Amino acid sequence: MHLLSKCLPGLYPALLLKLQLFSGALRDQPVKWLIATLSIAVGVGLGFAVHLIHKQALDQFNNGVRQFSGQADLQLLPHSNLLPETVLDTLVTLPEVAVASPVIDLQVTVDGFDKPVRWLGLDVFTAAAVTPNFIGQADTKAQEEATQGDIPLLNSSNVFTSPALREQLPGGSVNLSTLHNSQAQQWKIAGSVPAAGTGQLLAVADIAAVQWRLGTLGQISRVDLKLQEGTSPAAFQARYATQFKALGRLETPSEQGTRGASVSQAYRANLSILAMVALLTGGFLTFSTQMLAVAQRSRQWALLAALGARASSLRTQVLFESMCCGVVGGTLGVAMGWGLATAVVHTLGVDLGAGYFQAAQDGVPLTVVDALLFGGFGVLATLLGGLSPAFQTGQMALHQRLRAGTEEAGLQFANKAHWLGMVLCLLAVACLWIPPYGNIPVGGYLAVAFGLFGGIAMIGLVVRALIRPPAQLAAFADLAKSRLASTPNLLAVGLSGVVASFALVVAMHVMIYSFRFSLDNWLTQVLPAPLYVKLNSATIPAFPNEFQSTIAAVPGVDLVEFWGQQSIVLDPKRPAVELIARPVSLEAAAQRLPMTGNTLDVPNKGTLPVWVSEPMTDLYGLKAGSVFELQLDQGKRVPVTVMGVWRDYTRQHGAIVLPKAELLKQFKIQFKDTQGAVWPASDVPVQDMVRRIQQASSNTPLDGKIDFAEPGEIRQLSLDIFDRSFAVTYLLEIAAVVIGLFGVGTTFSAMALQRKREFALLGAMGASPGWMLRLIAREALIASAVAALVGLTIGLAFAAILIFVVNPQSFHWTMEWFTPWRDLFIMVAVLIAMSSATVTLSLRNTLNTQLVSQLKEDWA
Predict the structure, then answer these.
(1) Which of 78, 161, 221, 254 has the fewest CB atoms inside 10 Å of its own CB, making it the most exposed?
(2) Measured between alpha carbons, how far is residue 456 from residues 192, 497, 711, 781 in Å?
């Protein structure tokens, strides 16, 4: 401060005066300022944590893409899994291609490891020009043991491992054992891959050895292309994309990074919106706090104006106080966000709890730019909340007198605020027709924002309509109602923060309840079988056909079905779509799949009937009757007709169900079956059927490698995962309810403190402190009931926007509306009851002060 006073002699006194004035406001309403600051901190913290975690995930994902693509300008990738190696003959003849390096990239089961290991097969001669960092470095021992003419890099028994993989080998072992077709394959560790990333489990071998020993003869995973100098990747894509379209797609490494970011775009955006909800709540609490403070300090403003202070200086003071709240809240939020992000990365990784990314759990770097940006969001929220109070301060200072009772007079602008509210509500309705930008429902979020501001602006109209002055004071409640009716504007401003928080709580709770109820109904329909089976070991990639026949022949089995799936990229800019080949017929599709909308009875001639999930309609424009072509590996083309659209809550980026028998019969394509469903006879208990299947697999490689689950277990597990996914939202709901309770309590406490002279007069007339406390509690009960009614109405409207606009545009699936009336009744009752209790507890000692000291302040 001393340095500041020397450098800026005119600034120091002004800053000191602003801080002194602000300290008075803090003493008057310490709890309300604290709640507003914490709300800002929660919003900034959640948003900052989501940003840091996702930034860390994308950085690691993009680093991995750059690392594994090396110096490649382009990559030829398969539509699903593998390319025919004959494509190399075409690529090497193209004049624009300098080097075409084939790569096999597999997830391989290694003995002693719980998870598959990433296994690369490289042609060392071409990889030296494209991905030299992944060429293994032979150990001295391997070089010494090599026979004359033997090259360790080309030896079909050798493998080179990453440092992380070698560290996990038991007892310093120098051998790896892989499993292919139930046969063990032994590999000798001949060196290391030092360029592998931290924590990566990676093995690299000669491409020919991988094809031969791991069952990919004649097939490769991709081709890394290094173009001739002066050749543009975009020009190469435009010229040759059609030529290779049947086999795969040409992509740059940056396009893969874009697709990786799109995987979690909607999830990340909606978490960020939750952060904005907290910021909005904090902004409204700042508005409520400042507006009440402005009204209650009207004589202070008038005195300062009489002493020569300009209206602009008073406005600046209010904004300065708001800014202080934002600075403290933003600083706390940045610290909270960084701490939360660090904890999540160390405990869950960087996948945001949703399984989108898997990467090494490094520390979370904190950059100054990011910290200032998100801290600035907190300051911006409070400044916006303080704008209207600042304007009113200037207006009041010019015309208010140095007398008591000016609080309500300073809020006369609220008499006409409902007109602005109506305009904002109409804007909110209009925003519902704005299309989404990418997967972000811009129109829906704007509708919520405008609707929230509009609803808050109309609180005064609702207060004046519901709380009318009684004709006579015949009962105790009439006195409370009369007092509230005399200050409708003060009450409307004081309840704005409470209404905002309660409305957002109602909206989120109804949306989550509807989603959970819809998910439960969906699980009931998609799990018709009494028993489900699934492989639990990567050593067995699929249920063999012989075993499927064995299960079908087990005594007591009425019906058994097996199905498999694989991924396919339909659009290079979008994540992969799941293809599911399962036993389903045209007649049974409506019973097995939760269909939405119209369906077809007969497919187009020469096409395969398929059923697409709801995301396919938004992302790819497919609907019942659409005809398109699936391009699978090895150049196989499958023309299909969309028979209908079904609801799917597990695959956000789309899924296509294909009839298993028709796919094999017409196109000779069979997926690897990894899951199955069993219908036991009516007189066979499910547990007996489990024992029979276990006995049938006891002498096969599947012994002990099959998981069994009943529909109830799967449903409960799915709902538990759902609840964990929405844990952050539940916490925000609780926080918003607490904020609402404190908001009502502190609002009435502050209003009661301004009525000291009124209470002193009532005391002089014989009223006891207990009687006055009951009066204030009754006023709080009536006001909180109005706040709950307004918040409930706004919240239900917002829930409809979230369910019917935001959710379909973000995740591309629909849900049914279910109203949790019991939960809403409890929330309303708790808000009303706890508001009265909070006010009573906060004021029970305030009304016992000396009568004379209260009366002598009435100097008007």
Answers:
(1) 254
(2) 65, 9, 46, 20
